[in-house]
Amino acid sequence: MEVGMIGLGRMGANMTERWLRGGHRVVGYDRDPQAIGRVVEKGAEGARSLEDLVHKLTPSRIVWLMVPAGDPVDETIEALAGHLEPGDVIVDGGNSNYKDTQRRAARLKERHLSLVDVGTSGGIWGLREGYSLMVGGEREVVERLRPLLETLAPAPDRGWGHVGPSGAGHFVKMVHNGIEYGLMQAYAEGFALLRHKEEFALDLHQVAEIWRTGSVVRSWLLDLIARALEENPTLSGIAPYVADSGEGRWTVFEAIDLDVPAPVITLSLLARLRSRVEDSFADRLLAALRHQFGGHAIRREE
Questions:
Q1: Strand pairing of 45-46 and 25-29?
Q2: Catalytic residue list contains 109
Q3: Per-residue pLDDT tens for 246-266?
Q4: Among 180, 209, 247, 302, the one annotated catalytic
Q5: Of 2, 140, 173, 254, which one is the catalytic site residue?
C-alpha cells in the first residue's frame, strides 16, 4: 500500500519508517529538505512540493498529515486539497481540536474528499513499541486505511480502533491526554513526598523499580520515571517548568461544557500553570517525564 506523509518531524519520520518496515510505499514531504533526506535514506521517496507529492501517488490517494495543530493544519489542507481528486483521503494524525476536525471534514466532503482523524499516542517510542491509534471518520474510508493502521499499531488486532465519526478520534485522544495529565501529576507529587522525607534517605530510583513489578500503580509512565531517575537521580539541571500541549485545556473546557466533574484533570492542568512561577521537585519530574515519553524539550536551568 502507498501513502503520502506530510510533516517529517521525529514522530512523522518514525511512522514513515514503521510503514517502510511493513512493506508500504511512502512518499514524504516536509518544508525542511534535510528531513526529507533522512526518510529517503530509510527507503521512502521524497517530494519537492505538495503538488509533487500528489503527482507521485496513485489515485485514490491517501495523504497523512503530521503537522502542528491549528492554522498549520488548515493551511496545509487548503493547499493540498487543490491538487487532490474526488475520492482521495486526507488523514490528520496530529493533536487537532476535534471541533476543528468536524469543520474540516464537512468542508472537504463538499469537495468529495474525505478526512480521517487519527489521535496518535506513542511519542518517541512508537517506532519500537507501536502506536495507539484512535480513529474517527466514515467506516468505509477507515477500512481503506486498515493496512496502514495495522502496521503502525503494536499489533494488527490491538492498540487501534475506529471509535466513531469525524472528530471522534481527536476527541478520544484529547481525553486520553487529560487522563495522562492526572496520572503524571499523581506520580510527581508522590515522588516529591518521598524525597522530602529526609530522615529515611530514600532511593527514589529503587522505589520506582520496586513498584514496577506487582504493584497496582505499575505502568509505562512508572517505567519511564524509573528510567529518568536512573539517568538523573536529583533531576539536576531540569527547570521545574512544565509545558502543556493544549489538549489538557480542551479536556477541561469540554468537562465544563458537558457538566462532567473532572477535578483531578483540572487540578493537574493548574499545577502545570503554577509550575511556571514556582520551584518544586514534582515539576522537575513532570518535565523529565514528558521528555522521556514524548521527547518534549526540557527547559534547562541557567
A1: parallel
A2: no
A3: 899 999 999 999 999 999 999
A4: 180
A5: 173
